[in-house]
Amino acid sequence: MEKIINVKDLTKVYEVPIKQGFWKSIFVSKNKELVAVNKVGFGIEVGESVALLGPNGAGKTTTLKMLTGLLYPTSGDIEVLGYTPTDRKREFLSQIALVMGNKTGLSWDLSARQSFTLFKTIYQIPENIFEKRLTELTELLDATEYLDTPVRKLSLGQRLKMELVGAILHRPSLLFLDEPTIGLDVVSKRKIRNFLRYLHREEKTTIILTSHEMADIEMVSDRVIVINNGQIVFDNSLEKLLHNYQDKKYLTVTFTKPVAIDKLSKLGNIIDSKELTATLEIPREKQGKVMARLTEKFPVDDIDVRSIPLDEIMEDLFAKTR
Amino acid sequence: MKQSVFEEIRIRWVILRANALFSLRESLAYSLNNWGGLASTVVYMLTYLVFLSAIFGKVKSVAGYNYSEILLFTLVTQFNFYLSWIWSIKNLDRLGEDVKSGKLDLILTKPLPALWYVTFQKVDLFMLVFEMWPATIPLIYLLLKNATFQIGFRGLILGILSFVVGHIAIHCFQFLLALVTFWTGEYRGLNGLGYQIAIFGDSLPLEAYPKALMSMGFTAVPFLIHSGLTTSLLLGKTTDIRWLFLATGVMLAFLFIKNKVWSLALRQYSSASS
């Protein structure tokens, strides 16, 4: 497969001013170096959907911004779509799009449709194609009805849908998303995730995503790059990451009447219990045996089997690589 | 996919038109602000005209300019003032805000010549049509009524050239001040300073300034070209064309520096996250 992104030894060091007295800071200001990204290297192929994960300050957004040409690397090489991003060539910028959950590219005082008209000019989209594309995207996102509402009157979810529409009107081959579902309600999140999945599957858009929402990753991304302290600590498929943690299972058991917790604890580690429910953590290989014992010895109404949640996997991975 | 120069110009023109229309729609979203703006500039103009008539009731001339010549000078300064607000000052403020908030990200990732785009992002046609002309009508009326001078063809051409050259030069100077925001994240004070320096040259005719200030006002801080030199050329008080050549050289130097410092500023851009 053709590589769309090639990154080698990528490093970004920020100069951060050291807090000093007023006069000192004016005449002899001192800075300290903060390594945000440290000799990172990876390649991304055409059509992949990749999540950049990491705790706050890990370096994922800095990496994303270097990939889009917003930040100049301190050292290392980046090639995106065959271009050096910071050269900001029109041919390069015409093929990418950036959506940031906490920033708006739409005019606050005008309707989204009016902003899109400006984008149409910037991306030189022919009128008939523009109209067709706009209808298609707004229908997919259930956003047609507020296309003509001033952006300042839209809810966060509605505005973010419009941001997405505006970003991909020109059919970018590479879409960068920085926390695209931040602050959204459950319904809006799901709609946006489905939409991103559609873009990836149907339009073959390569997606690079950063998010703290594990559900975003599970629904949108096939591959995960985990960054911690400016370095890559995991780079593989989501399945591989989940597989690494599949030595445990969680059984959430619902009983028909209250049970003795001390008896239950003999079957596994109890991580949560209420009057008629309890969650047990057990080794994967004991799953069958434990379920049989449960139904045999306890008044079981229902058993729900879960793998370790992605959130906990991440927490563990961040802790191990701190 | 390299575009020809003509294609590049065509694209910029189309985007400029779209931006102007876009800015007009933004202005129309706040009608009360617009009427307030018009009222304040009309009040300012009337107050200033009363002030001028009071001064010229006592003296015959200021720096060799009689009442009608001062009215012409005032008209030039007013055109400069409005032109600055129509495209320059608002864009500098927006640039400062966008750098500070990181919103510049969304411009830098679009296929646009970024420096050109941030220079012309807002072109306030509303101000041009609904503020500039109504507010200057009393001044134009008084000027026509009291005109005691004649503007020759040569003076007119040189004056227009000086107006354009001076306007670009002072804009570049203000833009350089605004670029400091890429290093400091602060812009309001410096933008205010740039604005005050620009209108410093609008307070008195060119001939009123001492030689040292004139040297500075034509070179390092080009505040004497857009109004001072322009009016002097229009009235034929300055006939030496070398002043205009000097002004053009300064403008070109400032355009060059603007480009270079912009490239440095982008390297410094930290793209605030939220």
TrEMBL record, chain A:
<dbReference type="InterPro" id="IPR050763">
    <property type="entry name" value="ABC_transporter_ATP-binding"/>
</dbReference>
<dbReference type="GO" id="GO:0016887">
    <property type="term" value="F:ATP hydrolysis activity"/>
</dbReference>
<dbReference type="InterPro" id="IPR003593">
    <property type="entry name" value="AAA+_ATPase"/>
</dbReference>
<feature type="domain" description="ABC transporter">
    <location>
        <begin position="5"/>
        <end position="254"/>
    </location>
</feature>
<keyword id="KW-0067">ATP-binding</keyword>
<protein>
    <submittedName>
        <fullName>ABC transporter related protein</fullName>
    </submittedName>
</protein>
<keyword id="KW-0547">Nucleotide-binding</keyword>
<keyword id="KW-0813">Transport</keyword>
<dbReference type="InterPro" id="IPR027417">
    <property type="entry name" value="P-loop_NTPase"/>
</dbReference>
<dbReference type="InterPro" id="IPR003439">
    <property type="entry name" value="ABC_transporter-like_ATP-bd"/>
</dbReference>
<dbReference type="GO" id="GO:0005524">
    <property type="term" value="F:ATP binding"/>
</dbReference>
<dbReference type="Pfam" id="PF00005">
    <property type="entry name" value="ABC_tran"/>
</dbReference>
Automatic annotation (TrEMBL), chain B:
<feature type="transmembrane region" description="Helical">
    <location>
        <begin position="156"/>
        <end position="183"/>
    </location>
</feature>
<feature type="transmembrane region" description="Helical">
    <location>
        <begin position="69"/>
        <end position="87"/>
    </location>
</feature>
<keyword id="KW-0472">Membrane</keyword>
<feature type="transmembrane region" description="Helical">
    <location>
        <begin position="35"/>
        <end position="57"/>
    </location>
</feature>
<dbReference type="InterPro" id="IPR010390">
    <property type="entry name" value="ABC-2_transporter-like"/>
</dbReference>
<keyword id="KW-1133">Transmembrane helix</keyword>
<feature type="transmembrane region" description="Helical">
    <location>
        <begin position="241"/>
        <end position="257"/>
    </location>
</feature>
<feature type="transmembrane region" description="Helical">
    <location>
        <begin position="212"/>
        <end position="234"/>
    </location>
</feature>
<dbReference type="Pfam" id="PF06182">
    <property type="entry name" value="ABC2_membrane_6"/>
</dbReference>
<protein>
    <recommendedName>
        <fullName>ABC transporter permease protein</fullName>
    </recommendedName>
</protein>
<feature type="transmembrane region" description="Helical">
    <location>
        <begin position="125"/>
        <end position="144"/>
    </location>
</feature>
<keyword id="KW-0812">Transmembrane</keyword>
